[in-house]
Automatic annotation (TrEMBL), chain A:
Compartments reported by the entry: Cell membrane
Top-level lineage group: Bacteria
All copies of domain Heme-copper oxidase subunit III family profile, residue ranges: 30-209
Family matches, as PANTHER family: CYTOCHROME C OXIDASE SUBUNIT 3, CYTOCHROME C OXIDASE SUBUNIT III
Name used for this protein in its record: Cytochrome (Ubi)quinol oxidase subunit III
Keywords per UniProt: Cell membrane, Membrane, Transmembrane, Transmembrane helix
Taxon lineage: Bacteria, Bacillati, Bacillota, Bacilli, Bacillales
Topology term for the membrane: Multi-pass membrane protein
Family to which the UniProt record says this protein belongs: Belongs to the cytochrome c oxidase subunit 3 family.
Organism annotation: Pontibacillus chungwhensis
Residue stretches spanning the membrane: 30-53, 73-93, 105-126, 146-168, 188-208
Pfam family, one: COX3
Region (Disordered): 1-20
From TrEMBL, chain B:
NCBIfam families: CoxD_Bacillus
Protein localization: Cell membrane
Organism: Pontibacillus chungwhensis
Pfam families: COX4_pro
Name this protein carries in UniProt: Cytochrome c oxidase subunit IVB
Stretches that traverse the bilayer: 23-44, 50-71, 83-104
Alphabetical list of InterPro entries matching this protein: Cyt_c_oxidase_su4_bacillaceae, Cyt_c_oxidase_su4_prok
Membrane topology label: Multi-pass membrane protein
Keywords: Cell membrane, Membrane, Transmembrane, Transmembrane helix
UniProtKB/TrEMBL annotation, chain C:
Membrane topology per record: Multi-pass membrane protein
Top-level taxon: Bacteria
Chain's role: Subunits I and II form the functional core of the enzyme complex. Electrons originating in cytochrome c are transferred via heme a and Cu(A) to the binuclear center formed by heme a3 and Cu(B).
Keyword Transmembrane: yes
PROSITE patterns: COX2, COX2_CUA, COX2_TM, CYTC, PROKAR_LIPOPROTEIN
Name of this protein: Cytochrome c oxidase subunit 2
CDD domains membership: CuRO_CcO_Caa3_II (cd04213)
Lineage: Bacteria, Bacillati, Bacillota, Bacilli, Bacillales
InterPro entries: CcO_II (IPR045187), CcO_II-like_C (IPR002429), Copper_CuA (IPR001505), Cupredoxin (IPR008972), CuRO_CcO_Caa3_II (IPR034236), Cyt_c-like_dom (IPR009056), Cyt_c-like_dom_sf (IPR036909), Cyt_c_oxidase_su2 (IPR014222)
Cofactor note: Binds a copper A center.
TrEMBL record, chain D:
Family designation: Belongs to the heme-copper respiratory oxidase family.
Top-rank taxon: Bacteria
Protein name: Cytochrome c oxidase subunit 1
Species for this entry: Pontibacillus chungwhensis
PROSITE patterns assigned to the protein according to its UniProt record, in alphabetical order: COX1, COX1_CUB
Keyword Glycoprotein assigned: no
Main location: membrane
Transport is among the record's keywords: yes
Amino acid sequence: MSSDQLQRLKPGQSPHEPEKATLEGKNKFLGFWFFLGGETVLFASLFGTYLALNGEASNTNGPGPAELFGLELVFIMTIILLTSSLTSVYAIYHMKNLDFKKMQLWLGITVLLGFSFLGCEIYEFYEYIVHENHTFRSDAFGSAFYALVGFHGGHVLFGLLWILTIMIRNAKRGLNLYNAPKFYIASLYWHFIDVVWVFIFTVVYLMGKLGG
Amino acid sequence: MANNTNSTSYEFYKQKNKEEMKYQLITFALMIIFTLVAFGMVIAEYDPLFTIPVIILLACVQVGFQLYYFMHMYHKGHGLPALFLYSGVFVALLTVITMVTIVWW
Amino acid sequence: MKGWMGKSRVLFLFGIMLLTLSGCGLPNLTALEPKGEGADVIYDLMMLSVIIMVVVGVIVMAIYFFVLIRYRQKDDNQDYIPKQTEGNKFLELLWTVVPILLLVVLAVPTVQKTFMLADTTPSEEDKEDAVTIEVTGKQYWWHYNYNGLEIQTSQDLYIPTGERVYLKLAASDVIHSFWVPSISGKMDTNPGDGNVNEMWINAYEEGVYYGKCAELCGPSHSLMSFKVIAVSPEEFDQWAEDMKNVDTDATPESESAQAGKELFNNSCIGCHAIGSAPAGVGPNLTNFASRVKIAGILDNNKQNLIKWLQHPEEIKPGNKMTGKYGNTEAKNPLTSEEADQLADYLLQLNPSDITPEDAEAQE
Amino acid sequence: MSTATAQKKGFGATLWDYLTTVDHKKIAILYLIAGGIFFLAGGLEAMLIRIQLAVPDNDFVSAGMYNQLITMHGTTMIFLAAMPLIFALMNIAVPLQIGARDVAFPFLNSLGFWLFFFGGVLLNISWFTGAPDAGWTAYAPLSTTSPGHGVDYYVMGLQIAGAGTLIGGINFLVTIVNMRAPGMTYMRMPLFTWTAFVTSVLILFAFPALTVGLFLMMFDRMFGANFFDPQMGGNHVIWEHLFWIFGHPEVYILVLPIFGLFSDIISTFSKKRLFGYSAMVFATVLIGFLGFMVWAHHMFTTGLGPVANSIFAIATMAIAVPTGIKIFNWLFTMWGGSIRMTTPMLWTVAFIPSFTLGGFGGVMLAAAAADYQYHDTYFVVAHFHYVIVGGVVFGVFAGLHYWWPKFFGTMLSEKLGKLAFWPFFIGFHLTFFIQHFLGLMGMPRRYWKFLPDQNLDLGNLVSTIGAVLMAIGAVIFLYNVIVTSVKGEKVSGDPWDGRTLEWSIPSPPPFYNFTQTPLVRGLDPLWIEKRQGNGKMTPAEPLGDIHMPNNSFIPFVMSLGLFIAGFGFIYQVDDSKWLGLVFVGMLITLGSMFVRSVKDDLGYHIHKEDLEKGAGSE
Ligand code: HEA
Ligand code: HEA
Ligand SMILES: [Cu+2]
């Protein structure tokens, strides 16, 4: 069975859910979902910390959320990331149709969008640090802000490297039962990053702008 | 599709996937709309007491869309993923509520 | 394995014996002989919980011993196959419901007392003369600021008996916890002004009560002892009056003490204060001579004081006095003569006639 | 048996085998050895603590040293001894109990072990440079301002070990969901497997809070962040919450598998089906669920206010109900049974009253108002040693005696087993019972010395004597292990007349566990076959090729990378040159992740013909 897994999947002769066709695939699928359950708690702890500390710039003269944040860039970043979520849906769509080329194409677009998101974020941090003089060390708000948003950024970076790795690794040999689960869970991870971002833009930026 | 008995299962699922992709697009459109509304409300400077619950609600719905459509949680075989995700959400909620209520006094 | 029962019984008896030997602990330290309202209320709750536990314990142990004795495999019956019971609805319901009821019995007074102990607003009629004290925990001593009385002092906390004294607790370095077991339960002192805690204490009788720090705060955590000195309200008023009117610049009688004063004002005053002053690096020494203990732990006499002045690190590792002036850790140690003079000065700082002895005499 | 293999293979080959193994039974042995060594270290620290407290005003160790001892004792015992020993039991038994050839993620299983191991080693290296000294709870700001690198080691060591635990937890979850043999429905799983499942759930949701807490502390200590610094708008109470959001579930993580184990043992040695099986499952899940809603009972005196305190007090008390259900179900499993007092059963029987006492202490602590007196005194120390030693440690001893045949194919001596039990059991009660009273008599915990003339002398002395007895018991147990290994007498697959699947295969099991996957016909499947069949499991499949995973050295390297980076993080505070070590370490780790990702790892097959010849069953 094992080396069969490396056989290129062809339309018409393969299972319709290649990511869950093998026991290994099923295990990966389930294990990864469980992991996301744990990640939920991880990000909640960071969100909680941020919410407890975001009002605490006042006693250190640093800028608070309302003064610091601008919404234009955040809006652009949001649209980029949401779109990248859609493109990775397309990728999985083509994976299910066993169309490897198209899957790679859409994944490629996802990666590009991901990098532009990351670029925006780095630019944003740079602005805050250099022009607003608001850093990780300025006050508790600063620490909590960079920790939460930076953790998310770190997830984005990791996701991008991961997707790139499996794209390049499998570029020549196409889709098979061995790599299908890998592509699938990488896309789950990517969606989860988007889920977290939805809360970040709502809780950190929008609510920050509202002063609450 | 039920009358598609002659086609191979591949064609059958291809069709099905296509159907599904339509929903995905609708989902995406809604998500963009929600985002616009949320940003719009903040920019329009409505009363925060009104805006905050609404944008949080919008975020939750949007995340629901991501989970159920983009991440296929509405497909069958996702019972355990849902159970574990919601357990995580439960602990997450407890944590966040704690941090906003009993950390300062 | 026949010794099972025997051995546990011996163990049990042995335990009881030990307990009687050691009693319930030192009076004015132990929580088992409450001398204040808080400790009293809590003691009742404790006893209620003990009774519940004993009841449940007796039932559990009765079944336990019965089962162990009755259902041991007999040598002649090794092949016996017991009936494979799945369960019993009634029994299972029973041991779900009964504990719930017992817990309700415990929970109701728990909630009630939790709220009672947290009620830190004086009643209308007491509002005027309720004593409120800001307590600050520091590594490794305590500072008290009597609100509205312009008194600040350290280590020994004077309170009037028979009334609730309100405490506002904070810390200036790490977390400490203020605990006077025979008067009341403990409360943490948190650093920063965002998390100030409140509690009240009410000592029934006059006395000197042992206080301890109950939150790990560094190497000398175990030495961060203090005393609560409960005196009658009249005595308390007099003490307050004396403390308020202390002449911080009085000239000591003996020559040696005068020299000590000079030394003190040249080097010690940077950290310590005499007279009402906010918590400094070191404790306020206004009424040092009447302290029950030096540094919270040594008997208050000249010999110990000199030892403390010269070798504080040996007595309280990690304290903030080490190395601040000429003691063991420094290049030029305090000479014995200097230490002697300082001690003479400090041991005559005694602005009030109300001292721990007054409280102890009443016991 | 492993030593027999060792002689065949030579030391180097055996070592390499263990460094690269992905076999859950070998990983179990690794966990056992590492956890055992850490238990001895933690026990040694405990002995030093007790010696220091034997007499008043003692100067056996210095104040700073004492704080390091208690911190390392608590941390080592909880994270590096109790958890891994439980993982050892879970690894040996869970796959066998559900009739699986392997775990779901053999590679991750090995990774989990090595992360734990390197984290533990990192933490203990701190002994050479100054160990952490802020208590195992590491409350800020004491921890964030603690001089030296002790707390840095705590942060990095626990972060690495914690990652390993999380990975291990996910592995067990998926294993139990996906790898059960045909017929092994959820409601037919042995209780140990059930509790392993619920414990893994708790790990999954509790450890991320610790991860974040440790990150925040790391940022504060090493990179100048201000999460816990009140001067800069920070708040140390956040640490308390994050620590206990993790910390309370952690104590149930420790005790639940032990509950399951005792259920299996009691049922086996009473020759009876577990009384109230479904109630036991339900109680386990309920304890797990409630376990997440009670953490603030560790913070009653922090100042959260009467409303929060009351809510958490009531939630905490509620846990007594499902735990009580368990106690009574155990008693009624024995009721009407035919009880064999073997060593595992002896530990189990000793556990019931000991743990109940500890639980009573817990409920007393849960009464928030009363906790104002108990908190941070020896009453608490007494409570948690009663539940942890009387529960978890007794359980580990019971489990090791019970499953020793599955680990090594030999049996620990029953005689020595009982000989070790008595001093440990008596010493345990001597040590900890009296501590309840010490606490109420005014002795706070974490006290380097207690002062003379405070009526605390006798109690402390008794406690120390008890600890010596425990040490004697532990040494006898060690002696038993050595004697047994030297003798190396083989036992059958089913020496206890067992009821569950692990007893249907040889001791030690062949590396592929089941030649043919068994068909499960009910709860206690082997027992059913013994009563209603021919005493053997019916196979669920014809004899065929077995697919096995390849060994891998990557988990070791990946963990080693983090270990190296850990040093870098700790020392870059002094000199930024150390950041180089961070990069080297991370490069090793990320590099090996990359290799893992691009290298196909398809495993191999054992062929049917070889199976017929009996390959693997040495
Ligand atoms: C295995 C570990 C373990 C277990 C199982 C428990 C179980 C329980 N614990 Fe414990 N606990 C710890 C480990 C554990 N604990 C540790 C390590 C600490 C200190 C950490 C530190 O500060 O360093 C601690 C501290 C601790 C505190 C904080 C004390 C303080 O710091 O002030 C509290 C307070 O509520 C508490 C409560 C409980 C309760 C109610 C239970 C319950 O689960 C117990 C339930 C069991 C029973 C009650 C017995 C059987 C039941 C019956 C026979 C039924 C009928 C009973 C009744 C009706 C009462 N524990
Ligand atoms: C799994 C958890 C666990 C276990 C098993 C133990 C086991 C023991 N513990 Fe501990 N303990 C904790 C978890 C645990 N403890 C925690 C979390 C704390 C709180 C720390 C803090 O405050 O931060 C604590 C604190 C603590 C204190 C309080 C310290 C203080 O507050 O100042 C004391 C004091 O008596 C103590 C004693 C003991 C003793 C005597 C044992 C005995 O049961 C140990 C028995 C084992 C042995 C005796 C081993 C035998 C081995 C040898 C004798 C060595 C031989 C050596 C070689 C061959 C190399 N422990
Ligand atoms: Cu707890």
